[in-house]
Design a protein that fits this description.
The chain has 506 residues and is of the alpha+beta class. Helices cover 34% and strands 21% of the residues. The strands form six sheets. Strands 1, 2, 3, 4, 7, 13, 14 and 15 form an eight-stranded mixed sheet that branches. Strands 18-19-17-16-22-23-24 form a seven-stranded mixed sheet, with helices on both faces. The longest helix has 21 residues. The structure holds D-xylulose. D-xylulose (XUL) binds next to helix 13.
Length: 506
């Protein structure tokens, strides 16, 4: 149910009087906790997997799939998972009284709708038996997730209203860093107002999941950081405050319901006395929360610019510290605030590991056999050129799925992987230029052939960051950085992996 891993070697190195820092990642499928020591080294971690540990919520790996491409999750499940994880840490003898700082990372774009009574409920948390009781103060018991694709009509309406106001063209992307996206809060809030006007009007505070879980930790409404806030399609990146026009077209009164935006490096408060039952002390400080991607930039060793993280998973993601957003026609992808200050650019590709698996199956080979064919693929002029969007409609850029051509045989996997990696490279270079180093994470980082192909296509060294949980680790590192005043490049030195793959010449 709970998977715990404690690294004994690291624990032995911890001195008796040192502090620890704790990071959470409230992700789609699980809630992970990562404890690090006063030198930023991983000490202990544990994970509550919702599907198995909290099966009574009947989610499919953390998700409730509804009609018309709706995807939500019960908020009670996240709250219960937080209690479970704290109880587990205490039971396993984590040195709770020595935890000096905590920070939260959470899946981006999920929104939580609170009634007015939530403020008082948070303030008197220590009188409640468990965190789950907070659901009585929600105006909506589920949170729409980043997997939700049900808000196309809301985007059409908001685009039309903006254009009627004289803010057509690229106003949304140029202001908020992203074109309207169905999974982003602007569209989700609009839909909630359209579907449930009474509940919407009963809502006084709309949180992102990172700011909500941080609110729970400090026992009062917390601000949101520019990293997660920019994933709302409502933030003006140039001022770091919510944009009046975008809020106006979203839903009535939304500006007054959103949390204030606060710099990512700031402390928002001390931990609520509720958590002293788990052994935390009231002097444990809590940082502004952030999204899982901004946290993963830190946890992957790419806080400083020049390093580009490629994460190969169910969907593929590429992200990096980035120059200021362009003023003209924006590039593909999204610009968010960077936890270390400045900007972070991210693009998400839906055709990831499931597409690679379909191509591998088309070769009739095992993964071990098919992976060999990736080693020389970058410099193989005989490989057919195919589309990287073979399995599902792509979002970066919007493009219908184009199934694998027939008769590729053993060329199916190398041809697809080459097409995918060239596509990731060309999308990223429009915004980031040429990287000095790629940091490779996700399940794909286990594959030697894929790693070599990335080194060859990008023509730069690839460092494999194959320790799982970069968002939870990044969250813990943020708490360490703020608590000990460590420089960000020192943080990179601690967190980057060590397995390097060099590019091969033609
Ligand atoms: C980013 C995105 C996902 C979520 C879930 O825009 O939608 O990466 O953050 O992890």
């Amino acid at each position: 149910m709970i998977d715990q891993s404690i690294s004994n070697t690291t624990q032995e190195a911890v001195s008796n009087d040192s502090h620890f820092f704790l990071g959470f990642d409230v992700s789609t499928q699980s809630l992970k906790a990562q404890l690090i020591d006063h030198r930023g080294r991983r000490v202990s971690s544990c994970t509550v997997v919702y599907h198995t540990a909290l099966s009574s919520y009947q989610t499919d790996h953390g998700v409730l799939h509804g009609a018309n491409k709706e995807a939500t999750a019960p908020i009670a499940m996240y709250l219960e998972a937080l209690d479970m994880v704290f109880a587990h840490m205490q039971k396993e003898g984590w040195l709770m009284e020595r935890i000096a700082g905590i920070s939260v990372a959470a899946q981006q774009h999920a929104t939580i709708y609170c009634r007015e009574s939530m403020g008082a409920a948070l303030a008197s948390l220590d009188k409640t038996p468990n965190l789950r009781s907070l659901v009585d103060h929600l105006s909506r018991t589920v949170a729409p997730l980043w997997l939700d694709d049900s808000t196309g009509d809301d985007i059409d309406r908001m685009e039309k209203e903006l254009s009627d106001m004289g803010c057509g063209g690229d106003y949304v992307a140029a202001t908020s860093g992203s074109p309207f996206a169905t999974r982003f809060p602007a569209a989700q809030i609009s839909k909630f107002h359209r579907d449930s006007p009474a509940e919407y009007h009963d809502t006084t505070n709309i949180h992102l999941l990172s700011s909500f879980m941080t609110s729970v930790l400090i026992g009062r409404h917390a601000p949101v950081d520019p990293g997660d806030g920019a994933g709302a399609n409502l933030l003006d990146l140039s001022t770091g405050t919510w944009d009046g026009r975008l809020c106006d077209v979203c839903a009535p009164g939304v500006l007054s319901k959103l949390p204030p935006v606060a710099p990512a490096a700031g402390r928002v408060g001390w931990v609520s006395s509720y958590f002293t039952r788990y052994g935390l002390t009231p002097t444990c400080r809590v940082l502004v929360g952030t999204g899982d991607n901004p946290a993963a930039v830190i946890g992957s060793g790419a806080a400083c610019s020049g390093r580009v993280v490629v994460s190969l998973g169910t969907s593929d993601t590429v992200f990096s510290a980035a120059p200021p957003p362009p003023t003209g026609q924006p590039a593909l992808g999204h610009t968010f605030g960077h936890p270390a200050g400045g900007w972070l650019w991210l693009a998400c590709f839906k055709n990831g590991s499931l597409a690679r698996e379909a191509a591998r199956a088309a070769t009739g080979q095992t993964w071990a056999e098919a992976s060999q064919s990736l080693m020389g693929a970058a410099h193989d002029p005989t490989l057919p050129v195919i589309q990287p969007f073979i399995l599902c409609d792509e979002i970066t850029p919007p493009h219908p799925a184009t199934p694998l051509p027939d008769g590729l045989g053993r060329a199916a996997l190398p041809a697809l992987c080459l097409a995918q990696i060239r596509h990731i490279k060309s999308t990223a270079s429009g915004r980031l230029g040429s990287p000095s180093t790629i940091i490779l994470t996700g399940g794909g980082s286990q594959n030697d052939g894929l790693t070599q192909l990335i080194a060859d296509v990008f023509n730069c060294p690839v460092i494999r960051q194959d320790t799982p949980g970069s968002a939870a680790y990044g969250a813990a590192l943020r708490a360490w950085q703020a608590g000990c005043g460590v420089g960000w490049c020192v943080v990179d030195g601690v967190s980057a992996g060590e397995r390097v793959t060099l590019p091969r010449g033609e």
